[in-house]
Amino acid sequence: MRSITVTMSVTLDGVVQSPGRADEDTRGGFIHGGWGQGYWDDVMAREMAMGMSAPGDMLLGRRTWQDFVTAWGRASDGNPFSTHMNAATKYVVSRSLVNVDAWQNSVLLRGDAVETVTELKVESDRDLSIIGSASLVRTLHAAGLVDQYTLVIHPMTLGIGNRLFEGPAPRTEFELTRSVTTTTGVIIARYARK
To answer: Residue ranges of the Bacterial bifunctional deaminase-reductase C-terminal domain (predicted)?
Structure first.
């Protein structure tokens, strides 16, 4: 059975919206896009590369997949992240997309997220990784389908923006399995479901 690991950049006040670019996700008038820039260092690069070095497939929500198609899908720069994401099978959970032909190795999972991901989870031993896709993560977490989190905790608060968990989340206990602090004060913490 596959495990699902979520990797999420998050602020101290739980904001996960638009860490990469100013235009990444401006829903709700969010003006702090790109807040994660300036924190990248060799430690973070090594930790993120370690996460991507394990064989497995990706699981993405519609919005994140559409953003990644533009940001990573056409990249041929030799960047190991681009290489990994372009080669990986990308399962896209969506009720509205008609097809996912715009990015190689993408497979559309139509219908209810919990049902389709539950079926996908038992199909194979290839683990699944989710990067971003906060709405999908909240849904899968509530259904007990997330096995591990890698939280990239940035030393800042924003006060506004979509948070990792908005509203109630079911009680779930996790065990810290690894943590590293970067030279810029970011804590990368890996948690496994108990």
So the answer is: 3-187
User: Nearest CA to 97 among 63, 139, 58, 133?
Assistant: 63
Residue 176: other Cβ atoms inside 10 A: 9
- Bridge partners (DSSP) of residue 4 are 128
Task: Determine the Cα angle at 99 with ends 95 and 102, to 5°.
Answer: 125
DSSP designation for 27: G
Distance, CA of 39 to CA of 189 (rounded, Å): 15
Angle between helices 42-53 and 80-87 (to 10 degrees): 20
10 Å Cβ neighbour count for 23? 10
Q: What is the mean pLDDT of each run of 10 residues along the chain (194 residues)?
A: 96 96 94 96 91 85 91 68 84 95 94 95 91 95 96 98 89 96 98 96
Instruction: Tell me the pLDDT tens digit for each residue of 25-49.
Output: 999 999 999 999 999 999 999 998 8
**104-127 exposure pattern, b = at least 16 Cβ within 10 A, e = fewer:** eebebbeeebeebbeebbeeeeeb
Q: What pTM value is reported for the model?
A: 0.93
